[in-house]
């Protein structure tokens, strides 16, 4: 409903591919949930997203 009103929509709790298929079909394209990854400490996320730097630069 919000997507049809030109508002960005983020759907939390997207834990299964079936949820994603349904939500994409109704116009939602921003997701978060265990389907994409488990919660992690900040340090682990920094290493994942900035592997060459070994973390956030000073």
Provide a compact summary of the structure.
This protein is mostly helical and about 60 residues long.
How would you characterize this protein structure?
The protein is mostly helical and 58 residues long. The chain has one domain. Helices cover 29% and strands 7% of the residues. It contains two helices and two strands. The protein has a two-stranded parallel sheet with strand order 1-2.
Which features does this protein show?
single chain; 58 residues; mainly alpha; 29% helix; elongated
Which helices and strands, and how do they pair?
Blueprint: E1 10-11, H1 17-25, E2 30-31, H2 42-49
Distance between the termini: 42 Å
Percentage of β-strand residues? 5-15%
* Overall form: elongated
Q: Tally the helices: what do you get?
A: 2
Largest sheet: 2 strands, parallel
Order of helices and strands: EHEH
Mean pLDDT: 74
What structural class is derived from the secondary structure elements? mainly alpha
In terms of per-residue confidence, which ranges show pLDDT below 50 for 5 or more consecutive residues?
none
Total domain units:
1
Q: Order of strands across the biggest sheet?
A: 1-2
Number of strands: 2
Rg (CA only): 15 Å
Q: Kindly state the percentage of residues in helix.
A: 25-40%
């Amino acid at each position: 409903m919000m997507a049809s009103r030109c508002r960005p929509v983020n759907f939390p709790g997207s834990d299964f591919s079936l949820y994603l298929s349904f939500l994409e079909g109704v116009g939602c394209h921003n997701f978060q949930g265990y389907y994409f990854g488990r919660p992690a400490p900040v340090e682990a996320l920094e290493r994942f997203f900035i592997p060459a730097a070994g973390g956030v630069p000073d």
